[in-house]
Amino acid sequence: MTEPTIPAGAPRFSDAAALRASMSAHAGLVESTIDALLPLTSGKENKLIEAMRYATLGGGKRLRGYLAVEVASLFGVPSAQSARVGASVEMLHAYSLVHDDLPAMDDDDLRRGQPSTHRKFDEATAILAGDALQTKSFEILAEADTHADASVRIALILAFADASGAAGMVGGQMIDMEGEGQSFPLDDVRRLHALKTGCLIRYSAEAGAILGQATPDEQARLRSYGTHIGAAFQIADDVLDATATAEELGKTAGKDEASGKSTFVSLLGIKGAQAEAERLVELAVSELAPFGEKASNLKALAYYVIQRRN
């Protein structure tokens, strides 16, 4: 994981060491939870389980899982419960990456510095692994171990479906594929990124609030926080695609330009895109004011998402 830094001009809500320690602890918790939820079997389907584990374990920032666990901690939710929600969203995120990397989609051979799942195994296994990760992610939320109150579990599932389906992540991927070689205006690029990337990051923050049975105002604030950092995260990705190396990214660099996609960088330039990301981070941080020092890591995280190098 890239060491979190906080810009010199930003309020020092939490130092980089505290954020790094928090992210590492939550990542370890989510990782061990995924490991326990995806046990290997002795059956002939074991290759599928191996591919699911390969796609989810052993790497990544765990940003989405971190958000679910850290937001839930604001409301005193036991970590065993919030880690299940974090594992669920990380599994769904992993499914999306497995499918995105396929030749029919983004056709990428690298993911997190390792061969993509379809390269490590084969295309059919990768498709099935993605399918199984998606269904497993909803199964986890439906189980009583996630929360004793069925109404909370239903709320988590409904918000998850909204964020990940045709009105969210999958719809955004469709728009992204349609956008290859086309010029999109800025508003269309905003919507594309809000759906493809932002919805799942927004949900991750929202899920922690749902799990913690937050008040409607608290849920709205945390949903808004997630929306803003989701947008900032994608702008940072656009900048990284244009400026970072494949070694830094752990995946192929320069693909946006090569495919002719409209991005914040192509429309605003690097400095303009960075300024927009900084504006969104300030909006995100402002939503956390009522939570005081309890939200110090979430405030620092907002700055981290635009300072990372992968």
TrEMBL record:
Cofactor requirements of the protein: Mg(2+)
Protein's UniProt keywords contain Transferase: yes
UniProt KW keywords: Isoprene biosynthesis, Magnesium, Metal-binding, Transferase
InterPro entries, A to Z: Isoprenoid_synthase_dom_sf, Polyprenyl_synt, Polyprenyl_synt_CS, Prenyl_diphosphate_synthase
Similarity comment: family membership: Belongs to the FPP/GGPP synthase family.
Protein name: Polyprenyl synthetase family protein
Species assigned in the record: Acetobacter thailandicus
